[in-house]
Amino acid sequence: MRFKKTFLWLQPRPSQQFNVIRRVYQQDALNKDADYQVPEKPLAYRCKRVVQSCGFGECLLNSVPIAKWLPRYDMKKNLIGDLVAGATTAVMHIPQGMAYAMLAEVPPIVGLYMAFFPVLVYVIFGTSPHVSMGTFAVACLMAGKVVTQHASHPDLTHVYNVTSSEGPPLMIGTYSPLEVLSVLTLTIGLMQVMMWMLRLGAVSTLLSEPLVSGFTTAASFHVLCSQLKDLLGVKLPKLGSNYKVIFTVIEIAKNISNANWIAFGISAVACTIISLNNELLKPWVSKRSRVPVPIELLAIVFGTLASKYGHLKENFGISLVGTIPTG
Q1: Highest averaged pLDDT of the listed ranges 11-15, 59-63, 264-268
Q2: Cα separation of 196 and 283, whole Å?
Q3: Between 209-232 and 75-103, two packed helices, what is the crossing angle to 10 degrees?
Q4: pLDDT of the residue at 240
Q5: What is the CA 30 to chain-centroid distance, rounded?
Q6: What is the pLDDT of residue 112?
Q7: Where are the alpha helices (DSSP H) in the chain?
Q8: Which residues contact 266 (CB under 8 A, 6 or more apart)?
Q9: Which pLDDT band holds residue 6 (cuts at 50, 70, 90)?
Q10: 278-288 burial by CB neighbour count: b if 16+ within 10 A, else e?
């Protein structure tokens, strides 16, 4: 039997090819031939798209930072620390607010208002969790200068209660200190809103460090001179607005013989205790407790008790803040 060998040659098949011929469409022609219609979107969706396209939504979130950080706030981790910090700041603002209100030539209760309400606004619009908002010595001193120039009887603001009609009546045709201060702060607020809209905060980067340091140092001299008469218990005549620091020092030197040395002793003791607390006691307590010593509040409490039961005003002629309205 003979076998016939058969050989199968495998040859590669030609690759398959497709030739597609189609019409070139413009978008309008395609929509017309396919009978396509743009689906109707809800109004809320369209508004959202417009806001996203113009960047207004991101700008709004940056302008109201509470919308960003509040949903991510960790209560278990931060609530206790924030409560301690808030209580400490509030205690500090009680004496500071009343003192700075006197710098602004308005009743002390206004200083407590200034220490309370700006913080609520800063919670919504603020960007830093480490800033203590409230009264500011230099701003109050500058506001007091305007009040002194345009208000009637500015020296009587410490005598009568702002919430009552007690005390001497104001001059007809003039403005009270609160009216002048309200208009001043409202005007400054409007100017700051306009500066925010124009993003003029970047101008502060152009201020050199020597300029800022010089301004801060000069402001401290103004604040110190404005408080010298109260520290020494000396009554000074009304001084002009020009070279007021120099004239204040000269008048105090002239009236140093009339100084109330009991008032000076109380001021020296209070300043010494607060300084020792800041330099020695506060660092020692911070290593052992998260709650600092409320030295400002203690100073007010003990000072009030000493004034009430020691009859400092009747026996030694110590000037008092007066009645603080409640409620």
Answers
A1: 264-268
A2: 38
A3: 60
A4: 66
A5: 60
A6: 83
A7: 27-33, 43-54, 56-63, 66-69, 75-103, 108-125, 137-150, 177-197, 209-232, 244-254, 261-276, 282-286, 295-310, 312-316
A8: 303, 312, 318
A9: very low
A10: eeeeeeeeeee
Q: What is d(CA 176, CA 103) in angstroms, rounded to the nearest whole number?
A: 16
pLDDT score for 285: 82
Count of residues in the chain: 327
Between CA 116 and CA 154, with CA 182 as vertex, the angle to 5 degrees is 105
Confidence of residue 190 (pLDDT cuts 50, 70, 90): very high
- Closest C-alpha among 252, 268, 247, 304 to residue 108: 304
Helix axes 108-125, 75-103, angle to 10 degrees: 140
Structure tokens at 163: 């919430």
Q: Give the type of residue at 50.
A: V
155 has a pLDDT exceeding 60:
no
Q: Considering the chain, what percentage of its residues have pLDDT values greater than 70?
A: 84
